[in-house]
Design goal:
about 90 residues, alpha+beta, 5 strands, elongated
Length: about 90
């Protein structure tokens, strides 16, 4: 079957593209909530981060970008943050 230039080409669309996009968005948001999790700390809270690469550091929470928590540690240059996975951060004893 050969198409001549005079014949229009069909621009058939899926029956409900908005519905498919909505379903995809809901699934993406649900996956984000499941995998990222809720960080149980608040900005300004004093915590201890323990990580094999960064070591153990005590500081205040400055940045929360799930699943990571940025700590400002006293005695470090201004603007220096240490990021820890929120599962490796706990309240000081």
């Amino acid at each position: 079957m050969r198409i001549s230039p005079a014949q229009p080409i069909s621009t058939a669309q899926p029956v409900r593209p908005q519905r498919a996009a909505r379903v995809a968005r809901v699934l993406r948001q649900a996956a984000h909530r499941i995998y990222e999790g809720r960080v149980p700390f608040r900005i300004g809270q004093l915590v201890v981060g323990d990580d094999p690469f960064n070591g153990r550091r005590e500081g205040t929470v400055e940045v929360i970008r799930a699943p990571f928590v940025g700590l400002r540690v006293p005695g470090t240059p201004a603007g220096t943050l240490f990021f820890f996975d929120h599962r490796n951060v706990r309240q000081p004893e």
